[in-house]
UniProtKB/TrEMBL annotation:
It comes from Prauserella endophytica. Pfam families: FAD_oxidored (PF12831). This is FAD-dependent oxidoreductase. Coiled coil: none annotated. The lineage of its organism: Bacteria, Bacillati, Actinomycetota, Actinomycetes, Pseudonocardiales.
Amino acid sequence: MPTPTAAPAETDVLIVGGGLGGVAAALAVCRAGRRAVLTEETDWIGGQLTAQAVPPDEHPWVEQFGVTATYRALREAIREHYRRWYPLRAEALDLPRLNPGAGRVSKLCHEPRVALAVLEAMLAPHRAAGRLTVLTEHRPVAAESDGDTVRAVTLADVRDGALHTVTAPYVIDATETGELLELAGVEHALGAESRAEYDEPHAPEAADPLNQQGITVCFAVSHHEGEDHTIDRPSGYDFWRTYRPDFWPGPLLGFLAPDPRTLAAVERTFVPNPDVDPLAVNADQSADAGDKELWGFRRILARGLHRPGAFDSDITLVNWPLNDYWLEPLVGAGEETSRQALAGARELSLSVLYWLQTEAPRPDGGTGFPGLRLRPDITGTADGLAKSAYVRESRRIKAVTTVTEHDVAIDLVGPYGGTRHRDSVGVGGYRIDLHPSTGGDNYIDIGSVPFEIPLGALVPRRVRNLLPAGKNIGTTHITNGCYRLHPVEWNVGEVAGALAAHCLAENVQPHEVQAEDKRFGEFARVLDREGVQRHWPDVRGY
């Protein structure tokens, strides 16, 4: 993506972070006729879908309802990309609900580059019209605040260190870790709250800001029987080969791992390129999490969907129990610890690959799959690992409304329960899914109900012009587990962008829109016109 030689000195809305929430925010701002600057630390916009290489985690009703119109347009454009450009066999080409990877984690598993192409296309007309400036390879390094207002953000070009300061009446934090909250002095939470703070049954007794979900550095592989693509032995392999967490049923590098929902030890299977028609795969996490058969779990290209000979292997994305990293927190313990966490996560993922290539048990009784080939062409990197770590947990604003376990957990509200918000600005649905944490917790995976997203969760208690656009909204450590997924992040970002543009047009502040019924009604009509679903039909949680 080409980057302008100089960033604009001012704009209507500055969006820092080019993940799904940031892109959705930019689209909403520009659709309203306002100018926006969108920044991104890597050279790919798209965050979870692209730079982090994570196929979408979505609720089981996604094909019928429960997402915004623009998120649905994104999904359908991804399918259309495959129909137009890939050699799909006739039966696959005719599928209205094509799942390009036939993965089990999602009804729409696909390659990161395809999502990147579609997201770029969605932004293209606004860039051509001069409403949108996209600054890739830029990260925030400072923010200037005046009382309750964020005046400006300074960005550093990661290639040459050049600094650019951008002022804007509204600033949106769409970073993966809520970086602007720290830089701008916005009150926020981090890690696990104590049980006493919100009376959440699954919260720990004592608060621990450094107790955060593990991160994962994903990578893609194909398999070519008879070939040897074994990587060099990673320097940290001996440690990871013998590492056995206290709460794990065996070595981390192994196919025996806890079932997230029951914590029972379950043997995973791994058979590259299984001789099963991918058209027979039905991804439905409400019925089956799909994580027991690792090759098909996050498969992003299924060769069997295409004409014979077009591809000699599937491509699968490795984001498994084996390569979750939780030895150190990514956020809040200092830059050196953050660097160590990222380096450790990368070393773990390479060790997982080396173990798969050399020592993993094969169904035929042998060991190792040397034909596994790392795919840097899929991740857009030299080393074959994703450009960015998959970050599940961020700093979170101290919000006007904090979503707690009492709002969404099935055990507390019943399968048809859940808090109905007068200021709902969207919907989402997913189990409360927390991965093992840096505080030593095993999976916390409990049933939840389809939920509404309250506008109050996007409004900081004090600061007037900064809005969150991702995992940094007003959830807790526990409820982040169901609010952190792709369609919810998109919804939150779209609302943040629409709210900033609305406030500029009406000369009001976000707090007024949230608090006053008349003003909220006016904004809700904007969202309704844009196809933002704000309430669920009668569906059951799982």
